[in-house]
Amino acid sequence: MSARLPIKATEFIFTVTAGDKMSLFSLLSGTGRFVKVRFLADKEIIDNVIFRLHYRVTSAVLFVCCILCTAHSLIGKPIECLNDDLQDKIHVINTYCWITSTYTLPHQYGEKVGTHVAAPGVGSYVPGLHEVKHHNYYQWVPFVLFLQGALFHVPHWLWKNWEGGKIKMISKGLRGFRTDSKEERENSYDRLLQYIWSALHTHGCYAIGYFFCEILNFVNVVGNIFFLDKFLGHSFLNYGTKVLQFSSTDQENRTDPMIAVFPTLTKCLFYTYGPSGSIRKYDALCVLPLNILNEKIFIFLWFWFIILSVLSGLALIYSSAIVLYPSIRETVLKRLFKFRAPGGVATIVAKTQVGDFLLLHLLGQNLCSSVFQKLVKELSDTLNGSNVHPTVPNTLEMTTLSPQQEECMRDTTALSPQQEECMINTTALSPWQEEYTINTTALSPQQEEYMINTTALSPRQEKYTINTTAVSPRQEEYMINTTALSPRQEKYTINTTAVSPRQEEYTINL
Q1: Do residues 330 and 308 both lie within one domain?
Q2: In whole angstroms, how far apart are CA 469 and each of 60, 63, 464?
Q3: I want to staple 188 with a disulfide (CB 3.0 to 4.6 A). Which of 173, 227, 275, 311 is the partner?
Q4: Total tally of structural domains belonging to the chain
Q5: pLDDT one-digit tens code per residue, 119-159
Q6: Same domain for 473 and 333
């Protein structure tokens, strides 16, 4: 039987610690999808750089901080308490002080450590006379960081659903590396140009959604600053300024503001019953190793939120200037996208709306410079050659058309002046007249005049008018001037294909 090799305690501890670190690294790698670099051919750009700082960089940082706060392998236990009288029950005190709170004494922060106090804010006090500051936030820090990371992702989620993949669809085959054939790229370019021209002046809601999400970004970052201030007991708003003042103060006469907000040594009161049933109070010292990490996290978040709020405010000012001042749009096209065609910039700004400009702005970030300049140049040339701004028809100006008339308007390529006047002025046609107007390709002048002026025909007359392909001059005159025929005369007129001059004269004089 083979002997088993003993395992040393240090080897076991190293094995456990290494396993914890591997799990930590696997969690951290999961946040890489927020900041990983993607090729333009793989991912379209539907926002600006400041927008991406919110949902990619800030969300990733907050999620990483959340994971670090829960990594016990880096900082050990989140709390360790000390009391000489309850050494056998110290784990109970640790749990109690963690789930309730610990406290420090603000009036003891400036005292000398080692002679007057055990640590900054840890000393003796008189209940009711001295202020006691309780710290009960630390168990909520991971949850707050995770919530903030999700909040910074909400505006992007809203805009992505509002945008609906429009940029991805219309710029397909033109983004990033060109792997398609030349013919496919030309077809993609033609489709893009056709879409922009046909959908001009229809992107108002598109722009409203984008600007709303930009406002939401600014409100979100400012709101998170005040939320953390409330969470940390109104100590976050001036947290960064105090740290800067602390770094410039003489080392012998300064008090670290991070110690006041995130103390590493605190006190905790624990009550039990004695042998006689009396209440016994135990005063324990508690070490909070987690605050070593918390103070670094929140000082970084203070500076980052301030920078991000300033950048978001500048982005709002920039968007407002684009909406209110057309001259700013001209400057953006000239300097940002290097489009300097004579008269082209003024034409695009004058004949497009804010939503159209936003679409062009986003396309300029997805297309290469040469393709985008070609697109804008052709669009400006098209707008220069049009007298009427292309837009969606006004529903108040549209009249109701029958299905046959609508099909006729789509399918007809060439109409005579009389037929066009007939289509414009006719408001109500019978089914026979509508079918006749659609299927007739060539009419004599008398037949066209007859179609325009006739307001009511009997069913047999309408059928006769539609099916007749060749009519003699007398028959045409007869059809125009006749207002009422008997059933037999109508039947006779319809079924007659060849009539002698005498019969025609006889028919007309009846």
Answers
A1: yes
A2: 77, 80, 10
A3: 173
A4: 2
A5: 888 888 877 788 888 888 888 999 999 999 999 999 999 99
A6: no
Q: Measured in Å, how far apart are the chain's first and last C-alpha atoms?
A: 132
Residue 179 placed within a domain: yes
Q: Verify that 181 and 328 share a domain, yes or no.
A: yes
Tokens linked to 179:
């792997």
How far out from the chain centre does Cα 432 lie? 53
Instruction: Provide the total of helices (H) and of strands (E) in the chain, helices listed first.
Output: 25, 5
- Long-range contact list for 482-490, CB < 8 A, 24+ apart? 485/458, 485/461, 487/460, 490/458, 490/460, 490/461, 490/464
In which domain, by residue range, is 257 found?
24-35+43-101+136-398
**Averaged pLDDT of the chain:** 75
Structure tokens given for 209: 């959604």
Question: Are both 257 and 147 inside the same structural domain?
Answer: yes
pLDDT digits (tens, 9 = 90+) for 161-174: 999 999 999 988 88
Do residues 253 and 159 both lie within one domain?
Answer: yes
Residue type, 72: H
Q: In this predicted structure, what is the pLDDT of residue 472? A: 57
Output the six-digit token pair for 467: 């099916």
Residue 13 belongs to some domain of the structure = no
Distance CA 367, CA 364 (A): 6
Say whether pLDDT at 480 is over 90: no
Q: Which of 344, 311, 342, 314 is nearest to 329 (CA)?
A: 344
DSSP letter string, 132-174:
-EEE--GGGHHHHHHHHHHHTTHHHHHHHHHHTTHHHHHTTTT
Do 282 and 147 reside in the same domain of the chain? yes
Q: What pLDDT, in 10s, does the model give residues 355-381?
A: 999 999 999 888 888 888 888 888 888
Write down which residue in 398, 432, 448 finishes a domain: 398
The verdict on residue 16 lying in a domain is no
Residue 52 scores a pLDDT above 70:
yes
Residue 113 pLDDT greater than 50, yes or no: yes
pLDDT tens-place string over residues 200-209: 899 999 999 9
Q: Are residues 391 and 349 in the same domain?
A: yes
Q: Are 451 and 420 in contact (CB under 8 A)?
A: no
The token pair that represents 203 in the structure block: 């992107």
Give a yes or no: residue 123 inside a domain. no
Domain boundary among 398, 414, 444: 398
One domain for residues 170 and 272: yes
CA angle, 415 as apex, 413 and 417 as ends, to 5°?
Answer: 150
Residue where the block lists tokens 């400036």: 110
